[in-house]
Amino acid sequence: MSVRLDHGDDALNEVHEINVTPFIDVILVLLIIFMIAAPLATVDVAVDLPSASAERTPRPDKPLFLTLKSDLSLTLDNDPVARGTLTAALDKATSGDKQQRVFMRADKAVSYGELMMLMNDLRSAGYLHVALVGLEADKP
Q1: Closest CA to 116 of 51, 73, 75, 68
Q2: Is 140 helix (H, G, I), strand (E, B) or coil?
Q3: How many other C-beta atoms can be found within 10 angstroms of the C-beta atom of residue 103?
Q4: Mean residue pLDDT across the chain
């Protein structure tokens, strides 16, 4: 509440106006603090992501496809494989060549966690050359 001192009148009248200058000063200070702190709170990692319309790589003569279906069952080429016998089936299909590339396909309904578990199984089996297979996107 503010008062106006008027020497001409004996009664002090209340002024019904709010002084917003201190309020604006506080808001501007907070704005400056957030403008400085916000870029520091974000993680800025430079990542060179591939585009979806990348050129096709040449396909090997006999590719080895590992498919994870929506019901989480596995097939190696066209043969169903249990998850426990995946290593033995891969060794049989590649004749023990762990440098051969495994083309991995997964249904859209498969969660990211399940896909990562399968990739971990491949890594623990010694197959480090894994290619993810997807549909080609239309070029704009």
Answers
A1: 68
A2: coil
A3: 17
A4: 79
Residues making up the chain, counted from first to last? 140
User: Distance between CA atoms of 74 and 79, rounded to whole angstroms?
Assistant: 9
Radius of gyration of the chain (CA): 33
* Number of alpha carbons in the 13 Å side-chain half-sphere of residue 121: 20
For residue range 24-58, list pLDDT tens digits in order.
Answer: 999 999 999 988 888 776 654 443 444 456 566 67
**Strands 64-68 and 102-106, bridge-based pairing:** parallel
Tokens of 123: 């890594």
Q: What is the pLDDT of residue 77?
A: 83
Q: Cite the DSSP H helix spans in the chain.
A: 21-41, 86-94, 112-125
pTM of the entire predicted model: 0.57
Residue with tokens 């050129």: 55
